[in-house]
Amino acid sequence: MVLVPKGTYLVGGSTTFMGPWKCLSGFLNFWIAFRSVDGLMVHWMAKELRHGLPMIAIIKIRQCKTLPANLRFHFVKNAKVGQIHSVDSKGLHINLFASEQMDLSSITIDAPEDSSNTDGIHTGNSTFINIQHSKIGTGDDCISFSHGSKNIYVADVTCGPGHGISIGSLGSIRNKDSVMGLIINDVLHFYQYTNGVRIKTWAASQLNLVRNITFLHLIMNNVRNPVFINQEYYCPYSSCDKKSFSRVQIKMFTTETSGVPPLRRLQ
Q: Is residue 9 part of a domain?
């Protein structure tokens, strides 16, 4: 058990909670990471999880291809994460990879609305994840799901500003796992968004599948596209013609909205 008392701390470099204990050197794509842990509880009482300058300031200083995430959970099982306040991450705020049976609640994320590639919570190759009772405002996706995200439940999350909740982009890499069993439910509030929830796939894509996706009880304010399915999200060529089409299948898709047409764009 690692107990971090309430207070303000300066962590000069990347820190990994992993045995055996050792110091890592060189560039790392995270600030704090938990790996290969079964039965983890992170109850962060610090005022803010902040790592140096805001992302926009870093971009102005130098051009960075991959910027570190504030918090990563890789190969983690049976975890409870709560009361995290992530501010001005350089890249993703919270990243879940190859993890299962995780509950995330009372998460607060703050970043400028013009900070690109700063997704709030991102999952990949992870299953049985619950994300609830949180507030996320950032310059990119509120919550994003990549290949292999399965059986994920999201409820009571306030999103905005940012790019909404996204599945994808999918179809860029061969032999990647499908996305299925996602439920986005129970009064999510969106405001000042171009898109509410969206599915995005490459135009000239590899075979893939999005299945059993449910969007229910979404409350949106000042959102141009409540539900946006974009199968021409990215084209690797100068233009996408009839020979370049998405091979990502979308099946068993359910949505309910009111006030505006629920599906504003389908490509």
A: no
Q: Is 51 a catalytic residue?
A: no
Side-chain half-sphere exposure of 263, counting CA atoms within 13 A: 10
16 belongs to a structural domain? no
Q: Which of 51, 93, 147, 163 is catalytic?
A: 163
Q: What is the pTM assigned to this prediction?
A: 0.79
Reply yes or no: is the peptide bond before residue 20 cis, omega within 30 of 0: yes
Q: What contacts 236, CB < 8 A, 6 or more positions away? A: 202, 203, 204
- The total number of structural domains in the chain stands at 1
Cα–Cα distance measured from residue 70 to residue 220, given in angstroms and rounded to the nearest whole number: 28
Take residue 236 and report the two structure tokens written for it.
């690797």
Measured torsion, CA atoms of residues 188, 192, 196, 199, in degrees rounded to the nearest 10: -140
Using alpha carbons, select from 59, 54, 120 the residue that is nearest to residue 84. Answer: 120
Give the pLDDT of residue 194.
75
Give the CATH number of the domain where residue 87 resides.
2.160.20.10
Residue 63 CB-half CA count within 13 A: 0
Q: What number of other Cβ atoms are within 10 A of residue 82's Cβ?
A: 16
Domain span at 152: 26-266
- Residue 115: inside a domain: yes
Q: Is 14 a domain residue?
A: no
Q: Is pLDDT of 231 > 70?
A: yes
